[in-house]
Amino acid sequence: MARKPNFLLIITDQHRADHLACYGNGIVRTPNIDALAARGWASDSFYVCSPICMPNRASLMTGRMPMVHGVRHNGIPLALNSVCFTDLLRAAGWRTVMVGKSHLQTMTGQPPAAKRPTWDGLELPPPALAEALRDRVASDRHDQESGIKWRDDPGHDVELPYYGFDEVALANEHGDQVEGHYTRWLRAKRADGDSLRGAKNATPDESVIVPQGWRTRLPEELYPTTYVAETTKEYLEKFAADRSRPFFLKCSFPDPHHPFTPPGRYFDMYDPASIPLPASWDPGNAPLPPHVAWSWAQRDAGKAVKHTPLPFACTAAEARQAIALTYGMITMIDDAIGGILAKLAALGLADDTVVIFTADHGDFMGDHQLLLKGPMHYRGILRVPFIWVDPERPAQGRRSAALAQTHDIPATVLMRAGLAPFNGMQGQSLLSLIAGDDSAGRSEILIEEEGQRLCLGFAERVRMRSLFTGRWRISVYDQVEWGELYDLADDPNELRNLWDDAGAQRLKTDLLAALARSMVRNADTSPFPIAVA
Fold this sequence. Notes:
By secondary structure, the protein is α/β, with parallel strands linked by helices. It has one domain: Alkaline Phosphatase, subunit A (3-Layer(aba) Sandwich). The protein is built from 13 helices and 17 strands. The strands form four sheets. It has a nine-stranded mixed beta sheet, with helices on both faces. The chain has a four-stranded antiparallel beta sheet with strand order 14-15-16-17, with helices on one face. Strands 3-13 form a two-stranded parallel ribbon. Strand 16 and strand 17 form a beta hairpin. Helix 7 runs parallel beside helix 9.
């Protein structure tokens, strides 16, 4: 192993931990990711900081919680003056490259769903003073990931370095509708490439019943997963040709996020009829939390909205097909990862490269009769895979149930690189855990979520916090008196809410106090003081 190791970080999108064979799934085929787990270290209790794309991806890059880095929900770009752990690697001599989905800025280019207060009768502040921090989101360089600009402006590009990356090959958005550098690659491969993608161009197929699913006409060789894999391999070839500096390469797949559009053979690879419904599908006599009950009522009344990113209650047939198509996307990614790892070995880079695999968050995938993700903190959207393979420090399939979290990744990479974190980084290194010391895990996990849109019957957009310990999950919402409390040991499917249980009131009080202390601990410590007073 070189004195300064290389790093290959592979990340998938909306990919729950139990959608891998190495995490206990008996149906989906993921031999290449399984092989990583077999020779590395895997966390069985790895949780996100927020189950939403932009907040959690910003935590991955900064090592900070959403309430601190400021990306509370989708639609708020990570401030361009944010320090990312890639900035530290770059300053120390690493070549830093990002291939695939970034989502540190908004992708759609559409106006926000939330409306600013009108303040009738009062003069509004000038735009430059409309936010608490000047230019927090007003910069004209916060549009660099806009899908509209990538589609319509052939000269549009990101300004480098980009959040600590020397080079970026962007593939943003999802399914067969990905934009960014991928769009230019597709058009170079096929002049009519745009006519092959999207629901309106899909191959008609009456068997497709899942909302936001279609049989794409994009062939496998032109699908975004292929672009990300091929571009990653091209960068590995560049690194192998010039080994004067170590590299950090982020390989970020836009799948298996909805829309459900696996191409070619991957579309029919898994039969929905053979997919079992989740264990939580039938809650029996257990009362439903209000927001879940609202979702079910909307579905049963034929009023469910199923074409947006918001969660909705689904039918059994919809759940089975969503899972089957997601498995197809996951197997395609696994095949792509196999090619990347083979290239890494063929170039003689494997012995000098730490390989990391994770995901940004999960999907309900039929849990509690729900699809997609949203402010219902069931573990299906919060628990993701995390695998660490270090050729110099082989773990040989070791696993741990100790608690760890997304914002621990930057601290772990920096410590393995021999670099100190910046002041204000909140994640902690997992190297002791990886070495076998389970006592080095977290005592609890704080999960943050804030909504951008109204949903689930709430009168205002949801703002909530959850605390996970090894056994308990408690969730608090800002605008209602009810909450959630589950015993994850006796009730792993989170069906019996103990919030109002007479025998759990002392426990609830203790957990609420622990949640408050966790929020205090996660308050910002940056900047460091410059004087006593």
